[in-house]
Design a protein that fits this description.
The protein has about 200 residues and is α/β, with parallel strands linked by helices. It is about 40% helix and about 15% strand. The protein is built from seven helices and seven strands; from the N terminus they run E-H-E-H-E-E-H-E-H-E-H-H-E-H. Strands 4-3-2-1-5-6-7 form a seven-stranded parallel sheet, with helices on both faces.
């Protein structure tokens, strides 16, 4: 599983709301546009609301591929986006996450709530366990993830997380640098139990 990652599609985890500061939405639009300009497809939760919709709309407007994955029960709540390149309607949240992971070559979390955290932590855990070799990143818009990055370092200090596992997540406030890191990513198997 060595070598550099070929990133053709990136899974974007982000909020179904836009947050209080309009700069969150501006950053989401920048990410969608940047991915399209680099010829990288977007895989995301399929909604047209919040940061989810902003990323999708920006990528589409820039001529990019956007693939949504939404469970049946969220078709109304998250207001499914019907202007996408492709929309997968799946049975439940488990199938949504598995489908998004299968369709993606990398994962990035923009600001979001509990769902965004849960999606990120699941794919991070899968990487720790060697179930995939795809790069992971946090886009630290306005310092949104700075306290989380500190906490991840704290987990290492306290002996609950190995440094190699911590290093699986790249944190940057610059989407271009994050994408460049993804392009340079090489996978080194992590022995979760080695510390």
């Amino acid at each position: 599983m060595g070598g550099h990652a070929l990133v053709q599609r990136i899974c974007v985890f982000c909020g179904s709301s836009s947050g209080k500061d309009p700069r969150y939405a501006a950053a989401a639009a920048e990410v969608g546009t940047l991915l399209a300009e680099r010829g990288i497809g977007v895989v995301y939760g399929g909604g047209q609301v919040g940061l989810m919709g902003v990323v999708a709309d920006a990528a589409l407007q820039a001529g990019g591929e956007v693939v949504g994955v939404i469970p049946k029960h969220l078709m109304r709540a998250e207001i499914a986006h019907h202007g996408l390149t492709k929309l997968h309607v799946v049975a439940d949240m488990h199938e949504r996450k598995a489908t998004m992971a299968r369709l993606s070559d990398a994962f990035v979390a923009l600001p979001g709530g509990a769902g965004t955290m849960e999606e990120l932590f699941e794919v991070w855990t899968w990487a720790q366990l060697g179930l995939h070799a795809k790069p992971l990143g946090l886009l630290d818009v306005l310092g949104y993830y700075s306290k989380m990055a500190e906490f991840l370092d704290h987990m290492v200090v306290e002996g609950f997380l190995g440094e190699s596992s911590r290093d699986l997540i790249t944190v940057s406030d610059d989407p271009e640098k994050l994408l460049d890191a993804f392009a340079r990513h090489t996978y080194t198997p992590v022995d979760k139990w080695a510390g």
